């Protein structure tokens, strides 16, 4: 397992070096989205439309109802 510290927006080379199990720390502006936002993005791409330019090289944190907060107010997967 490798550990990477990456700054958003990412370049293709940043992503291509990652492997399953690597730890990745992201720095920069991160988008959050729930289920409907993911659906709208998918529909947009499938219909041949581009995503907004500010999303290029970015990362999306799924912040939907499958998340819980612990005692320190951190999000954790259920």
TrEMBL record:
Its EC number is 4.2.1.32. It is an enzyme of class 4 (lyase). GO terms for molecular function: L(+)-tartrate dehydratase activity. SUPFAM superfamilies: FumA C-terminal domain-like. Residues 9-70 form the Fe-S hydro-lyase tartrate dehydratase beta-type catalytic domain. The keyword Transmembrane does not apply. Coiled coil: none annotated. Keywords: Lyase. InterPro entries: Fe-S_hydro-lyase_TtdB-typ_cat, Fe-S_hydroAse_TtdB_cat_sf. It holds the Pfam family Fumerase_C. The keyword Flavoprotein does not apply. Belongs to the class-I fumarase family. This is L(+)-tartrate dehydratase subunit beta. It comes from Budvicia aquatica.
